[in-house]
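Progress against Task 2.4 (sequence-to-structure conversion) is shown through the following example record, which the project officer requested during the mid-term review.
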Amino acid sequence: MDHDDPFVKSPGANGQAPLSFLEREQFPRRMFLASMGFGLLAAARWAYDAVDGAGPLLSFGPARNLDTYAEFDFQNTSDLPGWTGVKGNDPGWKREEGAVRPTGPLLYNPSMNATAGEASYILHVAKGAASFVLHSDPDLHSFYAIRMARVKNDLQVRGFLVEKNKERPLATPPVTVPNGAVRGAHLCTVTFDDEVMSLKINGTTVYSAQDASLQGGVIGLLARKQDAFYVFSSRIKLA
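Structure tokens generated for the chain above:
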């Protein structure tokens, strides 16, 4: 019986098995397997698993001064490392539908002074809205947010500024994404620096606010009592 496995020897005509590639090159089998494993892990690190409706796989390209990286799988992680509530309280969330449903503020603690970056989430808005928090103070009294609200079968996107717990919409008008794009889970990427914040849905920019004057602060997610959205995974790169 023939074997294609380089680790299996086949007898030759004289009964002596020929040397395999690994034996000829004196390349240890464990090193060979380890190198293959690390290569596969490196490739997997830069791609999302396919999610229905989430669009093509995403890889982050080169970015300016992005030195903080984190990736979370909300489906398989029993705790949420790096995430916290306001004033160090437990994050407001519960596990539903194979994902995490935020029930209040869900802030990424290592982003205390984030000045720029990208925060991508695969999520589904069932009702209400998903709010992406940017440049918040730790107590969530003042912050910017991009809110993606479910309006009938459409999604309406708009930016807000909260100052001392009082909310006002930014001058940039709201944008409506038709119903063909709101079914299933979506890859939502918020990009921000000290002047502009924008939202991409499945790789297409749908909203950009240039009337924002952002300062360094915390990023995260926010759910109100009337909101129900589900987060499956997240990838964050910050400066």
